Amino acid sequence: MLSSIARGAAAGAAGTTALHAATYLDMTLRGRPSSSTPQQTVDKLSEATDTSIPGDEETQENRKSGLGALLGMVTGTTVGVGYGALHKWGWRPPMLVGAVVATVSAMVGSNAPMTVLGVTDPRTWSTSDWLSDILPHLAYGLVTAATYGLMENGRTRTPLLRNRRKNKKARALPR
Description:
Elements: H1 2-30, H2 37-48, H3 57-88, H4 95-116, H5 127-172
């Protein structure tokens, strides 16, 4: 079970990197600003838990920015862990189905808390807002599913590859 979870965490981390790359590419191409919802989520969580963020105003904003990014990384890695656990329990979807499940899970994992906290309301999003959310999460899902599949397949094929190399060396030796 632990190896499936570790592969899931690594796949989720790879997916999170893809999500960030897609987001920054979108920001670059369209010249749009970064989202303030992660920092707003940190603000709301701070209020809800009656916890203050230390430092002067600038330091607090920097910490909120860092904490918001870390929350996203935790979400992506956690979805990957869930993906790995499902595989351990026998779930073996085709790669594209797994990618869709990972995409939707990551979207729910990131947007549901923000919606519950009142940071955002997806019912009010424009088409552009939805695309800005869906496309990076789709990159996340595809990379997470593909990475997990490659690690799982690579793991099962490794002994075969070693045997092929040994056989090739044995055939190359003069008799």
